[in-house]
Amino acid sequence: MNGDGVPNSTQVVVHTGPGGGSDVFARQVTKLMQTDGVISDAWPVRNQTEGSSIGAMSYLKSRKGKVDTIAAVTPTWLVTPLTLQGSAVSITDLQPIAALLVEPEVIAVRADSGYNTIKDFIADAKSKPDQLVQVGGSITATDSLTGKALQAKTGAQWKYLSFSDSAQRIGALLRNDAQMMIGASTDFVDQVKLGAIKVLATVDDRPVATFPKLTSMKAQGLDVGPLPEEFRGFVGPPDMPKEAVDYYQGVFEKLVHAPGWDDFVDENGSVTNFLGPDEFGPFLEKQNESLKVLVDSIGLGQE
């Protein structure tokens, strides 16, 4: 760090490949910070794609005490270790820095599918077990967990097709290789405008700005209980010096008050939810406990 307590350089680790959700988010955020003058130098993104966040967590853990590396974190960083017996890494090993936002998720199908509500899809899936397909991210991603929770609650069964980025998932849905997708509202806006895709429901009760008239699964009579929120934030390596934590917290706090932030959030259908390290740490602990219950209940727990 220089004499002002600022790291000489910063790299941002993500667990997805180029074009994946965390990769896109990290690049958008760092570009916005430069554009709005929050940072002066570029923060390169490092893709550590091994093991659905295990590789990224392991790399960050290996940077113990360093000030030049942070990582963009999502619920996948909590879930993956919960599914692996004897995992050498977990979210509790890392230094919370800041949560920035949550991304409300929606359920989408092809416009010509004949489904008008989530119950329509569930009924069809129950009538043809394991014939329908949900497309999404990794098996430990939020969309996958939500789909598994729906199956556990309703008794329906369907297959899961995994792709690393949303464009591939949308393509599978449009080709009818998959019949349902759960994702951020912005994944679907363009195709909804074109009349190729329609959205059936929001996953939770949080309003979605891009589809203001869309009702939730619960409002449509399907209550599957607590589900994980797709939050996005940043963590650092173990034993990161307090001066570095304070610096990064300050940078991200400036970001959520920067001129371009509100437009960025609105364009991505997200909701600002800033938490500093003293709040983000307990938030992660609570999310970890809730996700363990969910993971165990749908049969993904450690064996």
Describe the structure.
By secondary structure, the protein is of the alpha/beta class. The chain folds into 2 domains: 11-102 and 230-298, Bordetella uptake gene, domain 1 (D-Maltodextrin-Binding Protein, domain 2, 3-Layer(aba) Sandwich); 105-220, Periplasmic binding protein-like II (D-Maltodextrin-Binding Protein, domain 2), CATH 3.40.190. Helices cover 37% and strands 18% of the residues. The chain contains 10 helices and 11 strands. It has helices spanning 21-35, 54-62, 76-82, 118-127, 142-154, 166-175, 189-193, 242-255, 261-267, 277-297, and strands at residues 11-14, 45-47, 69-73, 95-102, 105-110, 133-136, 159-162, 180-184, 197-202, 231-236, 271-275. A 6-stranded mixed β-sheet has the order 2-1-3-10-4-11, with helices on both faces. Helix 5 links the parallel strand 6 and strand 7. The relative contact order is 0.20.
Q: What is the topological layout?
A:
Blueprint: E1 11-14, H1 21-35, E2 45-47, H2 54-62, E3 69-73, H3 76-82, E4 95-102, E5 105-110, H4 118-127, E6 133-136, H5 142-154, E7 159-162, H6 166-175, E8 180-184, H7 189-193, E9 197-202, E10 231-236, H8 242-255, H9 261-267, E11 271-275, H10 277-297
InterPro entries: BUG, Bug_dom1
Protein name: Tripartite tricarboxylate transporter substrate binding protein
Pfam families: TctC (PF03401)
Number of strands: 11
Per DSSP, what share of the residues sits in E-state strands of 2 or more residues? 15-25%
| The top level CATH class name of the largest domain | Alpha Beta
Order of helices and strands: EHEHEHEEHEHEHEHEEHHEH
**How many H/I helical runs?**
10
CATH topology of the largest domain: D-Maltodextrin-Binding Protein, domain 2
The major beta sheet can be summarized as:
6 strands, mixed
* Alpha-carbon Rg, integer: 19 Å
Shape: globular
Helix percentage = 25-40%
Poorly predicted parts: none
How many angstroms separate the termini?
Answer: 43 Å
- The CATH superfamily of the largest domain bears the name Bordetella uptake gene, domain 1
Number of domains: 2
- Label the structural class: alpha/beta
CATH architecture heading of the largest domain: 3-Layer(aba) Sandwich
| Overall residue-averaged pLDDT value | 93
Strand order of the largest sheet: 2-1-3-10-4-11
InterPro entries: BUG (IPR005064), Bug_dom1 (IPR042100)
Protein name: Tripartite tricarboxylate transporter substrate binding protein
Family: Belongs to the UPF0065 (bug) family.
Organism: Mycolicibacterium goodii
